[in-house]
Amino acid sequence: MSTDLSPREQQVLDFLAASQPQMLDLLQRIVDIDSGSYHKSGVDAVIAQLRAHLEHHGVQCDIHPNAQAGNCMRASVAGSGKPVVLMGHCDTVFGEGTAALRPFRVEDDTAYGPGVADMKAGLVINSFVLSAFARAGIEAPMVGLYTADEEIASPASRPFIEANAVQALAVFNSEPGRPSRNVVTGRKGAMFVDCEVTGISAHSGVNHQEGASAIEALCRKVVQMHQLTSYDSGTTVNVGLIQGGLSVNTVAPQARASIDVRFKTAEAMEDVKAKLAAIMAQNDVHGTCAHITQQRYFLPLVQSEASKRLFDAYVDSAASIGFGTSGEYTGGSADSGFTAAAGIPTLCGTGPVGGKVHTADEWLKVSSMVPRAQAIALTALRMLRTQA
Q: β-strands 142-147, 236-244: how paired?
């Protein structure tokens, strides 16, 4: 444990050290709430639980309403100077009814449940770090950002993040720590694209020649889109969903697809975006036309020199707490890309250790909750003291 802390700063780490039972209680309450990205009332219910906890410990909370998506929340501990920002999303990938089918449970040192690692445990430790600062009466600025729709690329939450993190001293995004116990120092960006092709309907037996198949046109485009994948550059394109047609004996007048695109840099994003637009503009089947109906983006997390210094400070703090960690790269995308792209020192994957996320076997290592919370707190304390 660190020996360079004032009594009030040590109080922060001591509060966290004693908090595992309370952390588990809060985690159970929010894991047992369905909060899929499109389930506004569920996301809002998770926010309500976290708000009640934070306000009980003296943390100021402000709700930022969204008409369609769940609400966002800004939680803050007062202080002068640039704040340390803790981020986390309240939504999961799971549909309504999942929590009732497989509610939160703990077996030995492992917890299970929908979203337990991605990223409700991260929300819990962020909330306890904020609470620890407030209870200790440390006049150092700290902000918690709780968002609503990260799993669908944060269309409602991105402006909230960018507006509230713009002046941050540092950002910790408490996505799950890797099964290796590492944090995340780099992520791919992502683009989720929906497209639609229209054709001409015709009876497939009586007047087939008068039709123009939207399905055929889409399939030709799928082949071209998949050819944009380049493992050397790190760009991948996957058409994950297709729909189309009216009946087996009708030339299809419409077809739709949803496309997942991953890339390592902003330049690669612009390149693949232009190529997708060109593919959409091609007339693959006479009488058909195609257009993109929706595009949503995650920016890549590229480690800057400032982010590298933040990572080094975190590793040093983790060693003081008593655990070792390193950094690793992942093809998954997250809100941390938005803050990194804005030039803010950013570290991701600072949540408790977990794995098999987005599956029925998602797990969380319970014993990692307190030390991961302490590592965030100690790094923040040291940074804020240097700033002061």
A: unpaired
Please, are residues 262 and 188 in contact by the beta-carbon 8 Å criterion? yes
Cis peptide before 119 (omega within 30 of 0): yes
Q: How many CB atoms lie within 10 A of CB 237?
A: 23
What tokens were used for 276?
A: 């997708």
Cβ proximity of 129 and 321 under 8 Å: no
Least Cα distance to 174 among 260, 97, 87, 74 occurs for: 87
Residue 88's identity, in one-letter code, is: G
* Both tokens assigned to 70: 């769940």
As a whole-number percent, the residues of the chain with pLDDT over 90 amount to 95
- Which of 147, 148, 173, 159 has its CA nearest to residue 75? 147
**Residues 6+ away with beta carbon under 8 Å from 118:** 92, 175, 176, 354, 357, 358, 362
Q: What's the chain's average pLDDT? A: 96
Token pair 């939504």 in the structure block, residue: 91
Q: Which residue has the tokens 């009708």?
A: 250
Query: 84: helix, coil or strand?
Result: strand
Which pTM value belongs to this model?
0.92
Nearest to 119 by CA among 156, 155, 87: 87
341, 333 contact by CB (below 8 A): no
**Among 366, 299, 352, 17, CA closest to 174:** 352
Judged by DSSP in three states, 347 sits in: strand
Smallest Cα–Cα separation from 180: which of 353, 352, 329? Answer: 353
